[in-house]
Amino acid sequence: MQASRDSIIDIWGERSPYRGEWPVRVDQCTSEEPDHWVQSACVLCSNGCGIDIGVKNGRIVGVRGRKEDIVNFGRMGPKGLHGWVANNSKDRLTKPLIRENGKLREAGWDEAMNLIVQRSKEIIEKQTSLGIGFYTSGQLFLEEYYTLGVIGKAGLGTPHMDGNTRLCTATSAAALKASFGSDGQPGSYSDIDTTDCVLHFGHNIASQQTVLWMRILDRLAGPNPPKVVVIDPRETYTAQKATVHLAPKPGTNIPVMNGLLHLIITAGHINRAYIDAHTVGFEELEKIVTEWPPERVEKLSGVPAAKLREAARILGTTRSLVSTVLQGVYQSMQATAAAVQINNLHLVRGLIGSDGCGIYQMNGQPTAQNTRECGADGDLPAFRNWSNKEHVQQLAGLWNVELHKIPHWSPPTHAMQIWRFAEAGSIKMLWISGTNPAVSMPELSRIREILQKEDLFVVAQDAFMTETTKFADVVLPAAIWGEKTGCYTNVDRTVHISHKAVEPPGEARSDFDIFIDYSRRMGFKDKDGADLIKWNTPEEAFEAWKECTRGRPCDYTGMSYSKLTGGSGIQWPCNEKFPEGSHHLYTDGVFNTAADYCETYGHDLDTGAAVTQEEYKAIDPNGKAFLKGSDYIPPHEAPDEEYPLWLTTGRLVYHFHTRTKTGRSKELHEAAPDGYVQISEEDAAKYNIAEGDMIEVASRRGKIVEPAKIGGIGPGIVFVPFHYGYWDNEERPRAANELTITEWDAVSKQPHFKYAAVKISKTGGILDKIGEAIETIKEKFKPGET
Ligand SMILES: Nc1nc2c(c(=O)[nH]1)N[C@H]1C(S)=C(S)[C@@H](COP(=O)(O)OP(=O)(O)OC[C@H]3O[C@@H](n4cnc5c(=O)[nH]c(N)nc54)[C@H](O)[C@@H]3O)O[C@H]1N2
Ligand SMILES: Nc1nc2c(c(=O)[nH]1)N[C@H]1C(S)=C(S)[C@@H](COP(=O)(O)OP(=O)(O)OC[C@H]3O[C@@H](n4cnc5c(=O)[nH]c(N)nc54)[C@H](O)[C@@H]3O)O[C@H]1N2
Ligand code: SF4
Ligand SMILES: [Mo]
């Protein structure tokens, strides 16, 4: 590989100290000199870096950052620089597979699709389309989600459609809706260029959004650097740069946030005029947080009162603030309630809608925003409200179908419930696309059992043979990034186009083509007998999508394929009023909460009970933001005598999820070849464990065996990266989700991957043959380097 730096060792590259305008630095990694470059964006995290794909002789041979892109100004991180090699990997799926006599065999597209259609029709005949469920991704393209969303809602009429975004950033959407009336990030990455303070809440940004972290590192190296507050139980790379690092016990985010808000309010560090003019609910919020003096917070969370005070002083006095929130909140106890407290912090201080003031209820996956926008998850397209009949009618008009065709008698089924219905037998066909639940869902023994059920017909659409496709009845080979054209939207609403650079391998087809093929074979029509799906190309789908967004918060009507091509990505809303897109939402302090406009009528943050349309109309905030408090609820499972330790799980800088892409890059694989269990020095001594010892971690649901990594974490807490499953190593149980719990947040329905009670023990030197891998881990991961 020829690269502008060795990003495995030098993760973030050279500093460009600045304040104001982030300088350009073009990062690149190629295996050969490309004969041409094709415009794209990276699909290995939600940061959405603008990149070009290098092509030679019809093959991808490298990538480089786009210097004109407002997201990255040319920069790339290790995953982006190396992950592309997976496209060329020899073990790509190239033909459909069908299960026959218990074994998968190759089949033609006609045979595979006809089988899916035949099964669909049989199920519909017996039990209506309620027997069919879809479990999709945060990694397909906008045009694919919209097509799938229309098929599910107006073709089949099933409410059972959701994505792995439920595991990922359902809480982001829920928190934004709860405070501001609709999804959509208020801020812009450009806020980092001038802000005085950054807060990372349950977000290891240094590892997980490496390029955004470069922007912060460059600010830290420049004039008037921002203060950095980090709330994370582990001493992550991010925490190492913190002005103040609060390390709460897992599941205690609410006490910490209530404590911070209490100190800020009692010190008088609030913007009363903003609160009065633009919010509702301050008194109730104040009442709840008053119960949380620092000493009480310390008792529950372990965060020293003095440190909490220091953080409150910084957050209470800063003149601008950028906050990021991610899985340490979204996948932990009281997820939505805790994420909402960040919105509250910005609202009570009036730090929103202007330069330097951004809230990023972060996304994780590159296209998660589009799953939510397009209605391929449990939302209606373009942030419409399923319990507002007029919104549903708008969609019926747009798609030219009867209102009753679109399921809106109850909330769309969330993923955890879809899996439950499959388990219970009422869902008979589950179509999985672009996700690997046999590694990424909680409580894997249960997921494997469901996937293997005799009476569940499983379709899995992927580029590789995975732990999930292994169990499918039909496997469809998917074309992926670089092999198809489409758009996607990153955290700060920047929309990028990714052009097709090369042909997919063998007979692999894009998800877009597969979904349209299904629709045609099923004969889905509108009410005049015309084809329901009226588009044949991604560009036509994009044009249809634009119409769907007209007048909604995520207005794309001012964009086009040609406008997105040639320069930078563009931030929505982009329409007549904002032809070049918009950096900020809510600049005028008017939020999307009006009863006829909002995406939700809201929920009780503690119980998840829905507010009805009548109740909402009675209190219509009509443009004011909600301040919503919440009191502490203890985690559903906590350490006890039998399982005395907290488990938490997460990520490493070098791998993306179940490693289907990053595990196929030699550089990334060798940088982090195996999983591990991170424990504190205190626990290592207590259990007589040395670095690299194989240890067993057991919960009530399963067990894994992993080498020990000591340090960088508090006593009583165990951390396991969740990347490692079985496609490349079946020797021992090692997937973190063997241990995790089937529980979810009351409001967002996002599962709780961030805590469970476990016990650990030494395995007594078995499995020595992977000693070499352990040596590499010891070398690569010094304590704290996570
Ligand atoms: N390298 C890499 N980057 C990625 C990904 C990847 O797989 N690899 N995936 C992408 C995706 S889809 C996502 S969703 C994001 C996720 O990005 P992050 O949310 O940053 O990743 P995690 O490691 O899951 O969790 C973040 C932190 O939460 C902390 N944590 C655990 N429990 C608690 C708690 O109770 N409270 C608090 N405050 N913190 C807690 C953990 O110690 C961890 O450091 O990353 C994206 N970027
Ligand atoms: N314990 C624990 N579990 C977790 C988490 C955690 O922090 N801890 N995090 C959760 C989060 S935030 C996430 S996002 C999930 C991620 O979990 P998954 O979604 O299961 O992870 P991926 O490995 O990204 O799976 C994506 C699959 O899609 C395939 N793919 C890629 N591109 C395309 C395409 O264009 N078309 C098709 N059809 N397939 C494609 C890839 O080969 C891969 O198999 O894991 C969740 N699970
Ligand atoms: S920060 Fe995310 S989007 Fe940017 S290069 Fe890295 S993985 Fe890709
Ligand atoms: Mo995610």
TrEMBL record:
Q: Which Gene3D superfamilies does the record cross-reference, listed alphabetically?
A: 2.40.40.20, 3.40.50.740, ADC-like domains, Dimethylsulfoxide Reductase, domain 2
Transmembrane annotation, as ranges: none
Q: Which residues form a coiled coil?
A: none
- What keywords are assigned to this protein? 4Fe-4S, Iron, Iron-sulfur, Metal-binding
Taking every annotated instance into account, which residue ranges of this chain make up the domain 4Fe-4S Mo/W bis-MGD-type? Answer: 35-91
Q: One MF term in GO for this entry?
A: oxidoreductase activity
Q: In its UniProt record, which GO terms are filed under biological process?
A: cellular respiration
Pfam families under this entry? Answer: Molybdop_Fe4S4, Molybdopterin, Molydop_binding
Q: What is this protein called?
A: Molybdopterin-dependent oxidoreductase
- Organism of origin: Chitinophaga agrisoli
Lineage of origin? Bacteria, Pseudomonadati, Bacteroidota, Chitinophagia, Chitinophagales
